[in-house]
Amino acid sequence: MSPRTEIQNNIIKEEKRTLILNVALELFSQKGYSATSMSEIAKAAGISKGLPYSYFESKEELLLSLFKIGINQAMEFFDLDKNGILTADEMKHYITEVFKLLQANRSFWKLYFNLFTQPNVYDLIKTEMHDFTNDMSAILIEYFRKKGSLTPEIDTVVFNALMDGISFQYIIEPELFPLDAVVDNVIKQYC
Amino acid sequence: MSPRTEIQNNIIKEEKRTLILNVALELFSQKGYSATSMSEIAKAAGISKGLPYSYFESKEELLLSLFKIGINQAMEFFDLDKNGILTADEMKHYITEVFKLLQANRSFWKLYFNLFTQPNVYDLIKTEMHDFTNDMSAILIEYFRKKGSLTPEIDTVVFNALMDGISFQYIIEPELFPLDAVVDNVIKQYC
Amino acid sequence: MSPRTEIQNNIIKEEKRTLILNVALELFSQKGYSATSMSEIAKAAGISKGLPYSYFESKEELLLSLFKIGINQAMEFFDLDKNGILTADEMKHYITEVFKLLQANRSFWKLYFNLFTQPNVYDLIKTEMHDFTNDMSAILIEYFRKKGSLTPEIDTVVFNALMDGISFQYIIEPELFPLDAVVDNVIKQYC
Amino acid sequence: MSPRTEIQNNIIKEEKRTLILNVALELFSQKGYSATSMSEIAKAAGISKGLPYSYFESKEELLLSLFKIGINQAMEFFDLDKNGILTADEMKHYITEVFKLLQANRSFWKLYFNLFTQPNVYDLIKTEMHDFTNDMSAILIEYFRKKGSLTPEIDTVVFNALMDGISFQYIIEPELFPLDAVVDNVIKQYC
DNA sequence: AATGAATGAGGGTTCATTCAT
DNA sequence: TATGAATGAACCCTCATTCAT
After folding, report:
1. pTM of the model
2. What are the 10-residue block averages of pLDDT along chain D, 191 residues in total?
3. Domains assigned to chain B
């Protein structure tokens, strides 16, 4: 008779939100962001066409939420103690964990690479992304400088490119890519 | 009616086809495949909305044609049927040329990275791609072995990932990426 | 359980109903009927989205309720069951009061003009409206006849049209319309 | 075999444009702008849902086109020789013709009054409308000043209100409204 | 009586594609 | 071959309305 309590509603909302995010991630990564319609997501989630809009303002916002979640997961492992300084151990930890994540969350990283190559979509995440990379780069530059590099900025760019390249190739063909051995190699080279 | 006319017609047809392909490549890479309409392509090419359908069955076929052409061009460029052995100088030359090509043909490579992240498209060239990369990898493995590497296969994978990663990041934001410095760094590291 | 509770309940119900009507009138007149959503009304009234449907069957019924209430109020205000004769002073008083009402109740009159232009809505109160205007016209005709007009019916129609036109223009852009000066002018002309 | 000539296309386009305008005017005036969907218009016109968008950029633009056409029709009769000065004869002509137009083009004027009372829709035509009324008012003010009025601005406002009021009442119930007699009365009063 | 999560029809708009010319 | 008017499915999104609680 009485309405649901706020707690009940919050549980329902959280579950639905998660459901929508999961389904959207799966479809976006399988078919690409543009080629996936909101209706498809709703259908695959077993909910009505309109419901996703109770949880996300727009398709764009849904994408951005997904993106932030994924990126934050990866960033958690970077500079573990968040003191702005990277030790060799923290670096090793980061590299190890990022690639664990890559394996555990292939869908997201597939989407990640897909987004970057769609100009109109990339614009949506550009700002978000720059914030992340700027913070990260500053710390990495310092890391390479301390290790005695004369060109820490370039080393940072190269390191990032390598991480991206490995991720990319793994994502394209996970079965054929010798990820573990490659990761070991990277750790040896950089830590 | 006369044979010459037919030949001329074929030339004209070939020119139109090329025109459409070029314009499409430019727009697809600039705005993304989904965000580019067939009408836009026609308009930019100065032809009618219906004409592209005389040359390509659908938008998707146009895209695939572009992809195949681009991949073939790239493979021809890296013609490996020489002597199968890479010297340090040849390696340097290779790295230099890859990135020259990247800069000269940004449009294609942008599209290329986009298509790689779309499973259904990648499947279409998977086999050819494997043949190509296998040939290339064989030569690189030999190169690293000669340089004294104990894990030449892994070094090859890492090298390829790095090349891909650099290309990827450059393509995403060409203005911000210090390509020349990075290339120098790679050459120093690998040659 | 006790009778008092029921009475109190009725009072509460009546208050809620009135609240919804007031909020709806305000929003409908501010933003237009179509552009106002039921959710907005509920939110502005501080109640849940579903509650208005306990009081009104549909958005349209809510609109019609508003319209009928407003028209009845206006008709009561212009209660003509007095002596049926208008003096110049009474005329002046009437004109003054009409425009006072217009200013005091802009929301309603805006909506009123809107509804008049929607055939299906106007049909709902056509009959009552005719009764009302006929009564009023009779008195005005007598007024103009006494003032010596040879076409008192036409004068009445023109007078009514003028009153309507002024109201209309004032409602459309209240800030720009010089209502007071116009009213003075009308009084001078007609009293 | 060969494509239609430009002339043929222009004829087709002009006919379709007119068709869409006519159907839209009819439906907008019958049901109101907001309550009429583009699909309805297309269906009533016997064309596909998408075609109106080849002729008008949006529903708004369609409305504006309609509005401009209607207003321009009326303005043609105002200040016949377009010299910025109104004679008594021109005034008479204007009044007569405007009301002829009102009768001939009831749909438009119904829409006209409907638009004014929908805030979000009125915004679309506000600018357009101000341009018209400003020009007209300037000329009318001069007209009343010449006739010896001490308050030509107010007279102009009152005149406009009267014209609007008459139009409004006629539009609401054309059968009952004694338009001809009223027009005579107005002419006598103002010319 | 009251809540708000959920539905799904329908809105404006776009665009790949067709086809009469 | 070439044109562009026309189609209609599909897209993103809104919102009146329902109903379990």
Report:
1. 0.90
2. 79 95 96 94 97 97 95 84 87 94 94 88 87 91 95 96 96 94 95 87
3. 1-56 (1.10.10.60), 63-190 (1.10.357.10)
